[in-house]
Specification:
seven-stranded mixed sheet, oxidoreductase activity, acting on the CH-OH group of donors, NAD or NADP as acceptor, six-stranded parallel sheet, Rossmann fold, 15 strands, single chain, Quinone Oxidoreductase, Chain A, domain 1, alpha/beta, 2 domains
Length: about 325
């Protein structure tokens, strides 16, 4: 089978198209004929060698796919031919991938495989950060960074549908228009405006109740200045390449709370807490109350180009690969 393989840590030139043997499912596993694979910024961090606990080269990246069950192992309730979406530990950038059956969900009839490949990481991260970890309520306000990205487009919809006042940052007018269409009340072009000033001006200096920060670095530090007293920040990534460095004196003076969220570790240690949102999310996708925003689709052979596209901040919504 054809795979996109990371041969060394570094730039996207180390993604090569190679051939591997088709894998066989073990107990509790299924093999999926991959129709679409989601690309996440974590894939890029892993390729660079900057991801804690990430795989060592050579390896096939990719943690979420959508496709058709092709073979089943022992003790699996799935059948060959089932259309599914969900998680793979690695190996999603391939024509076939192995998944633990417990991490798969039925693909809704009204969703394409490309949309299915944009569900698992994005919508569970967004829902968990807003609600299970962030404890957001309908009368609160939230600042969502990268509001036009994969997690951002999911979080904007979920927060808006819940009745929250939504602030969102993005780099271009086009991205801000997308965020606004999805329910962002206060789109902020961070390349032209100081997002802290914009938030505080719009809240009479009070700040927001919750921040979702997948950026890290200076964004983390500045975001704390946009939080109200007793506000919370959920830190779920470091797309800037640098971890956030909060000032603990400011944290204690303002009674701020920073909550860490890592999807993979959360699924391993408390899967019930992570997955409890799935029935609600898939139901809203089926009804049209939510939608997976697929920005761009690349052929599997163009995986390196797809990584560069994301790194150049050209992407909106979810970027997927199709074998």
């Amino acid at each position: 089978m054809k795979v996109a393989e990371v041969t060394e840590f570094g730039g996207n030139e180390y993604i090569e198209i190679n051939e591997r043997e088709k894998p066989e499912p073990g107990s509790g596993e299924v093999r999926i004929e991959v129709k679409a694979a989601g690309i996440n910024f974590a894939d890029i961090m892993q390729r660079r060698g900057h991801y804690q606990g990430g795989p060592e080269p050579p390896y096939v990246p990719g943690m979420e796919v959508a496709g058709v069950v092709d073979a089943v192992g022992e003790g699996v309730g799935r059948e060959v031919g089932d259309e599914v979406m969900g998680f793979v530990e690695e190996g999603g950038y391939a024509e076939y991938a192995i998944a633990n059956a417990a991490g798969l969900f039925d693909l809704p009839e009204n969703m394409s495989f490309e949309e299915g490949a944009g569900f698992s990481v994005q919508f569970l991260t967004a829902h968990n950060c807003l609600f299970e970890w962030g404890d957001m309520t309908e009368d609160e306000s939230v600042l969502i960074h990268a509001a036009a990205g994969g997690v951002g487009t999911a979080a904007v919809q979920l927060a808006s549908n819940a009745g929250a006042e939504v602030f969102g940052t993005a780099s271009t007018e086009e991205k801000l228009e997308l965020a606004a269409e999805l329910g962002c009340d206060h789109p902020i072009q961070y390349t032209e405006e100081d997002f802290v000033e914009q938030v505080n001006d719009s809240t009479d200096g009070d700040g927001v109740d919750l921040v979702l920060d997948g950026i890290g670095g200076e964004t983390t530090t500045e975001s704390l200045k946009a939080l109200t007293h007793f506000g919370r920040m959920v830190s779920f990534g470091a797309a800037s390449g640098e971890p956030g460095q909060p000032n603990t004196a400011d944290l204690l003076f303002n009674n701020h709370t920073i909550i860490g969220y890592h999807l993979g570790q959360a699924m391993y240690r408390d899967p019930g807490r992570v997955f409890q949102a799935v029935p609600k999310l898939t139901g809203q996708l089926e009804s049209g109350a939510l939608e997976v925003i697929v920005g761009t689709s690349f052929d599997l052979e163009d995986a390196a180009e797809a990584h560069q596209y994301i790194e150049d901040r050209k992407s909106s919504g979810k970027v997927v690969l199709t074998p």
